[in-house]
Amino acid sequence: MQLPNLLATRRGRLVAFFSLYMTEGIPLGFAATAVATQLRRQGVGPAEIGAFVASFYLPWAFKWAFGPLVDVFRSERFGHRRGWILFTQIVMVLTLLALIPVDLPTGLGIFTVILLVHNTFGAIQDVAIDSLAVNTLSEDERGLANGLMFAGASVGQAIGGSGVLYLMGKYGFSFQSTFIFVACALLAVTAFIVLPMKEAMVAGLAPPARAAAGAWRAAGAEMKTFAVQSFRSFLGTSGAFRGVFFALLPAGAMSLGLALQSNLAVEMGMTDEQVADLSLWSMIISAGCMVAGGWVSDRWGRRRTLAIYLLGMSFPVLYLMWKLQQYGYVMPRSGGAPIPELITILWIASLWYSVFQGLMYGTRSAIMMDVTNPAVAATQFTAYMAMMNLAIAIAASWQGIAVEAWGYPVTLLVDAILGPLCILLLPAMKRPPGLFTDALAERRARMTSMVLGILCLLWIPYWANHELLGRGQPIVSTFYTLVFISSALFLLAGREVLGDAAGLWRRVALWVSPLLLLMYGRSFLGKLDSMPALRSAADILLYAVPLAGGIVLVALATRNWRTLDPDPLPT
User: Fold this and answer.
1) What is the DSSP string of 26-49?
2) 8 and 196 in contact (C-beta within 8 Å)?
């Protein structure tokens, strides 16, 4: 029986993109819910689980970098985007199968690395799917299609998270055997949706053979174009500039939407089936509220309603904090007999939280569209979404560290206080009445470069005395991860915007930026203790790289940034 090409009809396209987004949600639900639950059940601490979940989100923070690769490299036989989707789904299946022989928790390191590769290809698949959607969906079906795509992602999370836990808790499947289930779910979409697709050729594209000759050069050129467009768009208006900080800050209290919830569920004695129930109902409520939140925001104003949603996310977190403190449940524990009272409290807090998280979700994306320049919408909005994923990764990491350092109540309190801080940026995040640029872009560039440079230089006294902070020092270190990543991206984009005006710093910035990204590897410094020479070299680099980064950033702050002003981006 020959399967139909779903891209050929309106209904088929809706089914196709719903299913494709489902393949994005399956691995997310699997890692963030099912795997995180099993790791905690096997004695892995909250900090390690937080780092694991953070590493899973990290590739999505850099998915913008895969866009030029998807645009330039293509297959004549399998289709441009269809070829990428086929390739990435096959790799995702293979990496899942490669996890089967990995023993947990002893093999958590290699397990994390394999899943990181898996999710990197998941992020590439997302870029290819979105590109296919842009080139396939007609204007009158994009709204419904986008709604179904997010619904598909939610269904995928339920399959990968709750579905796996149901198989283990209700039907006695082993943890390793569920990897096959997840792989088969991905393969089903590949076989019944992707393989029968026939992608239409897009007019204006160079022949694949010609593109292959200079493919890497073309990809590099697109990356430069992306950097310049993003930089100019982010600095062009007050709303867009504040949108960067809004995207990098937590979107409200995030603790009950990450691994902390499943950690507590395991410690309180919930079975896999009960954790699956909690996850499933949280997802259902959140999905329904996503639709309701967007509908309400269109009528009452996005900034006003989003502020209410973000603030509302803190109340269930504070409720859970108060109850845990009352019961003396402070530090992580290895589990034991079920605690019915606390399980009920966790259910109430989680479902309550799902309401406001769902209300917030769609509205937050809409407000980012408000400050995005339509002329460079794909570039700027993709970057905002990538930064939001980076914020999730950082939140997952610091919360795991904080739970082990301060306990659950203090971590929840800090999360409830810091989460709504992004509300302070909302008043300025509105669509400008005219052009998406103003006379202050140069000053914003100077200020950003100077602040990032000073923060890099402050790393030196911090690192020399970081042990004085005791168990709280990893929290500051997590903040510096954000500083180093932001500094590296600023240097890469800024050198292209400045051009010759950067002087000798243009070349220096190109060398310093990847070294700043490599500062993330400082978390593995302890593994070099058995190799004194390498450890000494690493210790020197830990001071030298931020020093060099700080000097370059401060120097760029003194350069002529007027190239941002005379050529305003059109609306």
Assistant:
1) HHHHIIIIIIHHHHHHTT--HHHH
2) no
Q: Residues near 230 by Cβ (< 8 Å), separated by ≥ 6?
A: 64, 376, 379, 380, 383, 493
**Considering all CA atoms of the chain, what is the largest pairwise distance in Å, rounded to the nearest integer?**
69
Answer whether 460's CB lies under 8 Å from 539's CB: no
The answer to whether the CB of 27 falls within 8 A of the CB of 122 is: yes
Q: Which residue has the higher pLDDT, 206 or 416?
A: 416
Contact, 111 vs 102, CB < 8 A? yes
Q: What is the mean pLDDT of the chain?
A: 82
Q: Strand pairing partners for 234?
A: none
User: What's the rounded Cα separation, in Å, for the pair 538 and 544?
Assistant: 10
Closest among 315, 324, 326 to 351, alpha carbons compared: 315
553 three-state secondary structure: helix
**Other CB atoms closer than 10 Å to residue 534's CB: what's the count?**
13
Residues 294, 280: Cα–Cα separation, whole Å: 22
Rounded distance, CA 510 to CA 514, Å? 8
User: Phi and psi at residue 386, in whole multiples of 5°?
Assistant: -65, -40
Given a contact cutoff of 8 angstroms between Cβ atoms, the answer to whether 408 and 330 are in contact is yes
Cα angle for residues 479, 546, 507 (degrees, 5° grid): 125
460, pLDDT greater than 90: yes
Helix (H) or strand (E) holding 184: helix 175-189
The end-to-end CA distance of the chain, in Å, is 50
- Tell me the C-alpha distance between 462 and 544, whole Å: 14
C-alpha torsion 349→352→354→357, nearest 10: -110
CB contact at 8 A, 316 and 256: yes
- 105 cis-preceded (ω within 30 degrees of 0): yes
At 320-357, the pLDDT tens digits run: 999 999 999 988 887 667 888 999 999 999 999 999 98
Confidence grade of residue 311 (pLDDT, cut at 50, 70, 90) = very high
Full DSSP string of 320-361: HHHHHHHTT--S-----S--HHHHHHHHHHHHHHHHHHHHHH
Q: Where are the alpha helices (DSSP H) in 204-330?
A: 208-213, 215-236, 238-248, 259-267, 272-300, 302-312, 314-326
Per-residue pLDDT for 495 more than 90? no
Q: How far is CA 528 from the centre of its chain?
A: 29
Structure letter (DSSP) for residue 75: B
pLDDT value at 457 more than 90: yes
Rounded to whole angstroms, the Cα distance separating 21 from 146 reads 10
**C-beta pairs of 461-465 under 8 Å, 24+ apart in sequence:** 463/542, 463/543, 463/546
pLDDT of residue 142: 59
| Segment (H or E) for 165 | helix 164-171
